Amino acid sequence: MNKNLKVYYWAPFTSKVATIRAVINSAFSLEKYSKNKIKTKIIDASGEWSEYFDEIKKSNIGYIKLNNHQFFEQKTGYFNTRLNFIKIFIKCFFPLKKLIQIEKPDYVIIHLITSLPLVLNYILNLKTKMILRVSGLPKMNFLRKLFWKIVLKKVFLITCPTEETRNDLLKYNFCKPDKIVVLFDPIINVKLINKYKKENIVIKNEKNYFLAIGRFTKQKNFLFLLKVFSKLLEIENKSKLVLIGEGEKESELKDFIFQKKLNNNISIINYQKNIFPFINKSKCFLLPSLWEDPGFVLIENAYCNIPIISSNCKNGPTEILDYGKGGFLFNNNSEKEFLDKLIEFNQSKQEEIKKKILFAKKKAKNFTIFSHYLRLKEILYYDYK
User: Fold this and answer.
1) Mean pLDDT, to the nearest integer, of 82-107?
2) What is the chain's Cα-based Rg?
3) Are the CB atoms for 229 and 259 separated by under 8 Å?
4) Cα(348)–Cα(350) distance, rounded to whole angstroms?
5) CB 3.0–4.6 Å: which of 17, 116, 237, 359 could bond 325 by disulfide?
């Protein structure tokens, strides 16, 4: 490692997503383990990162504010997010162009709203190398395929969170196959997890509960979960479920619980910054998602030795749970199969469950911040060897 590097992160977000944590952990890993050989900065497009400013500074990560005022609101929904994409492109075009041309970072790692840096990279003759970080399984509509066919020819590298996602992207022939690589997300910070686990919490169903965590959106499929869990209660009425999150589907979920009179068995808890005490006290983690890539909370539960029941949705869960060796998998959105797996779990011997826990934890260890650093370092220094 002979050359010092400057690595910037571009990741504007319009709602709280797991990628926020991945960006901070990735920059932190480079700062912590490179021993000042790699300096990192997070680019704040419109104040979206201001809430995390203290944590960023504490982690010795640099912070660049492109605009002095916030010009978009943190709102979900198709129209709002598309409007925010347009605002970010227009308002940040010249500030980001100027920043890259003046500061000349060696790399910009781009996440989430990526159209602006991809366009700048395509139209300008930049010395800075762009790394597109695919965060989650991308939906390939006609416009995105056309856009990526054009701009991805000039990116330095595309990184994917799972092998399955890499294989999916290879089918489109966006670029040469060796420019698409797997880079596991930096999800597991061992020191912090051990610290967070010790926090005392009070839970309505203190012990022996199933747990589900995530944004209350269509993707997470929590209404499906409640429907299946209500059927489980008809068979075994002592089961408990704790659901943690927030989002646009919250009233729908609460209405279902109220109408079915499930308040004694199902608890909804608002978004929690520290989820690990809840994980630590649960008996099983449930992931009913329609799609994930890779599935941050699934990996966190696997690392914490919690058994997992998950849909086999694309792209992360099946790969991480080793095609069933590391958990109980059911066909995506199948109420019958999900119910069968809940019953199977309740009837399984502890020895069988422990085997699955060990398989899942082995996979989860690929997602530590140190493992991420080792792989990312190889990528960043590839040209200089």
Assistant:
1) 92
2) 21
3) no
4) 6
5) 359
Q: How confident is the model at residue 170 (pLDDT cuts 50, 70, 90)?
A: very high
Helix 78-103 vs helix 115-123: crossing angle, to nearest 10: 40
Report the distance separating Cα 65 and Cα 247, nearest Å: 28
Dist CA 7 CA 9 (whole Å)? 7
Given a contact cutoff of 8 angstroms between Cβ atoms, the answer to whether 340 and 330 are in contact is: yes
Which domains, ranges and CATH numbers included, belong to the chain?
5-186+368-384 (3.40.50.2000), 191-366 (3.40.50.2000)
| Structural tokens at position 284 | 């099983």
State how far the Cα of 240 lies from the Cα of 223, in Å rounded to an integer: 16
Please check whether residue 40 is in contact with residue 27, taking contact to mean a CB–CB distance below 8 angstroms: yes
Residues in a beta bridge with 310: 287, 329
Q: Which helix (H) or strand (E) holds 44?
A: strand 38-44
If you ran DSSP here, which 8-state letter would residue 216 be given? S
The enclosing H or E element of 39 equals strand 38-44
Q: What is the pLDDT of residues 354-377, one digit of tens each?
A: 999 999 999 999 999 999 999 999
Measure the CA–CA gap between 155 and 94, rounded to whole angstroms: 20
Q: Do you know the residue count of the chain?
A: 385
Alpha-carbon distance of 266 to 80, in angstroms, equals 32
Distance CA 330, CA 336 (A): 9
